[in-house]
Amino acid sequence: MSKDRDDQLHAMRHSLAHIMAAAIKHLYPNVQFGVGPTTSDGFYYDVDFGSDTIGPEELSVIESKMRAIIKKDIPFEQYDLSLTDAKQWAKDSGQDYKLELLEDLESKGTTVLSDVDEGTIDNDVEKASFYRCGDFEDLCRGPHVDSTGSVGAFKLHKLAGAYWRGDETRPQLQRVYGLAFSTQEELDEYIQRMKEAEERDHRKLGAELDLLAFSDLVGSGLPLFTPKGTVLRDLLGRYTQQLRKDRGFEQVWIPHMTKTDLYKKSGHWDKFGEELFIVNSQETTDELVLKPMNCPHHAQIYASQQRSYRDLPVKYMENTTVYRDEKSGELHGLSRVRSITQDDSHVFATANQVADSVTELVEAAKELYAQIDMELRLRLSFRDESDAYLGDPELWDRAQEELEQIAKAQKLDYYTEEGEAAFYGPKLDFMAVDAMDREWQVATVQLDFVQPQRFELEYVDEEGQRRAPVMIHAALLGSFERFLSIYIEHTAGRFPIWLAPEQVRVLSINDAVLPYIDKITTELSGVVLSQPVKYNELRHTVDSRNESLGKKIREAETAKVPIILIVGPKDEADEVVSVRVSGEEKKVPIEELAEFIASL
Fold it and tell me: What residues have CB less than 8 Å from 216, skipping those under 6 apart?
């Protein structure tokens, strides 16, 4: 999309938020408004309806009123008021939230809303910007289209709760969402994609396929994985361990809690202190936390003995769970949780070993995502000019240049984004594209110049001098939970055969063939898949219920079992098995069954 068209769409969406507020004000005269920014697919407005809280059924009424305003093709008129007059307008209009914004503007010269960039008003501190549309006027910086008749296609589609300024201690408003595009065709296409996304929602499929559960007694953001869901976690974890073991990584283990001193020394306490779960001991006065990350622990393993340049690179790996006290309003299925399992890796290397160490991790990530059929792009996450980063700027520049050379050498589709680096070093962030053409950040490789210095990590070089190693952080899946939320939706629950929790379901036509099914399952028990995960024993079940074959097939297909074996008297007589894969059926001699399945 061109910049001009982008700007026009942004103006349309912003104008629609204003029109929606005007429609709501006509229908509910006593409402108060928060903010009404644009989004990547439309717009919303936060509204305090007071005692007139609305439900989804009212959206069509608001939408009809909006269409009436649009039909009149009313011009948008911009004007300024002094801050004194603007505050008086807010008081006279009963708009307490707008008054707060104006008071911020007066005292700070700007108004910053924690939840949306669009809510930042950055005007001359002597005045405030307003827009008028007919008899409705609103504190607003724009931009808007010329008139209400130029806003494209839209649809109001949902309601949600939103705390004022993202603060759980402040009033909760109703957030009214709308979709908006330049044409009706674009809007219809997007709505169709949304419907498909709903069908693929990992929370819905997770329950339907018996992969995961949540419990109020356990707590928000703490998912429970069933036997089937645990197969997914286990196999993916084993695969990433295998990829790293093949590249010289050794497995370590660390406890799930630590003294706060560890994170204060690493620098994480100052950056992430509010995300930590505090643990109280009944025996000691130690200040303890549940670990939110693993790198400081792994640094302590490195520090436990003297190292020579001959020992480097030292490579540790661990699949382990960390804990972060995410805000309850931000928790979402597996996408945002409080218990986060990471396939964490740390390399301690000399400066000359960084390129090779990073390259082999990039190759491991490419191998993983090729195996699970997800296209990758690479984001070079570099520092900006702010003071949010620690370490020598010249060292940063050299490292960023080296990472870009690796991206080029690996012939990766990459782009650079400043301001996305970790506070301790630049990153290679892998962006996976799913079946819905959505992009997600997954694997990551990060350089760290800070922790080796903070923890005084050393090795002895060829000249007998003590040097600080470079620390490299990496994760191939990132968070198991977040990755599974992406992958379940990417596959719509139809996992590749090697990863499917239930790979084979054997269906009996009648009880007479049960002895023959025992013979079949004996054959299946000997099948061990060797690719891509070693020692992956075939997982199968038998459905011998007294139900129609059609019902059994439908249920197996609904459960997304990739291989269905249908066994009847004729199959037994011919010593074959009817194998159904992707809707196609084939007769396979029983003595060839194990080899045939292993080849799929």
Answer: none
Cβ burial of 430 (10 Å; 0-12, 13-18, 19+) is buried
The number of C-alpha atoms within 13 Å of 335 and in the hemisphere containing its C-beta is 14
How confident is the model over 411-467, as pLDDT tens digits? 889 999 999 898 888 999 999 999 988 899 999 999 988 889 999 999 999 999 999
pLDDT in tens, 302-322: 999 999 999 999 999 999 999
- Nearest C-alpha neighbor of 256 from the set 214, 219, 288: 288
Catalytic residues: 295, 324, 342, 344, 346, 427, 473
HSE (CB half, 13 Å, CA atoms) of 593? Answer: 29
* Strand 250-251 versus strand 314-323 pairing type: parallel
> What is the sign, positive or negative, of the torsion defined by CA atoms of 355, 361, 364, 370?
negative
Q: Work out the average pLDDT over 393-414.
A: 88
Domain at 504-599: CATH architecture: 3-Layer(aba) Sandwich (3.40)
Q: Which residue has the tokens 């009817």?
A: 578
Tell me if the domain spanning 208-490 has CATH number 3.40.50.1110: no
Q: Is 213 helix (H, G, I), strand (E, B) or coil?
A: strand
Give the three-class secondary structure for 74. Answer: coil
